[in-house]
């Protein structure tokens, strides 16, 4: 399933695309958005890819997609931050704090660069890295909908349904059901107020979201 919101070009002179890096590449929903976005010449475009351990060539892929539409990325940056893939790992509270403190410093530099209109080209596109991302992601996450489990304690609040960016979760008789279009963002796992949604080996691992983000910010615009 796909979001119900259409894609229109921003009339701003500065447009940015910020996304989480998935195994060194773009999340599917981000790639599809960029491939459909009506880019305009004369606009300052920037892109920030947030990653935990492996940044790959994600930002370079953004530039490649744009080049196919007659424009180029003016500023590209890879921002290290806290990983949230509970299916595979957990980041301790202590490490989270250190990573976020460092990310704040990087973010301040990025903001300063953007205000000054600086140019920072990403590394050249690497087809091998892009193919590696697609292979790894398909191997580990393409069937994520098969790995969800629901423990006792669900109160049918619908938070999981509302934070899913692709309408992949529906409540049936107050119980969440996952479709086949999961983007592996893990929002439903991290935002469950009862912590009863699990995926893979997530049981017992700490939920995470950036302390400045509220779940209502993620609710879809209908």
UniProtKB/TrEMBL annotation:
Give the Pfam families listed for this entry. Fer4
Annotated ranges, domain 4Fe-4S ferredoxin-type: 144-174, 182-202
Name it: 4Fe-4S ferredoxin iron-sulfur binding domain-containing protein
